[in-house]
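so the lab meeting is tmrw and i was supposed to have these ready like two days ago... anyway. pasting both below. for each one the top line is the aa sequence and the line under it is the structure tokens. i havent really looked at them closely yet so no promises
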Amino acid sequence: MRRVCFLLKVRQDRIDEYRARHAAVWPEMREALSATGWHNYSLFLRDDGLLVGYLETEDFEAAKAAMEATEVNARRQAGMAPFFESLDGARPDEAMTPLTEVFHLE
């Protein structure tokens, strides 16, 4: 299982709404994530808007592609894009660039 960590930046003026939206993630979105290989998926948000995402998956590119093929993901990404800084026209899920793991304590 591969561990994946990525960073995004939530706009300062949208942090409260971003938190509220994640307090009530659509059941069909949760189901799609699980079905497409996203395991142990977590998001951590700092008060300045730095968002840290973490997940475990067999194949991150395949898991992203499988989610991209779902209708619920298209709706979710369109609705969430305005919350982020520096996407340069990309959807949030396209901007999730994995960080390089340099240490892991098993």
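ok protien two:
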Amino acid sequence: MSAALDRMLTAIADPKRRRAIALLGERPRSAGALAVALGLAPPAMSRHLRALKAGGLVEDGHPAFDARVRIYRLKDGATDELKRWLAETEVLWTHQLAAFKRHVESNGE
């Protein structure tokens, strides 16, 4: 497992961060809008957004009309490595469980 995948899994381990990801999946939002939607104080939301950025899941930018505001959005392709790892893990478990089933059935006779 790569360090980037480790950071991503760490970032999504928190339920508030997963909820923030769900909200950003609907549309880009400001940190303030996310904080209100999640019932968090701005400093707490800031910490969660830093973790999500460190995990490579979100990115931020400034709208053309106001450089003081940051708008957060999901990063394109951010979960590609996670999806690959999950698919590989599913194949591994499928093979392991099938082998275990064969073992149990052959020893039960």
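from a quick look at the 2nd one: DSSP finds five helices and three strands in the chain. The CA atoms of residues 102 and 108 lie 10 Å apart. will dig more after coffe
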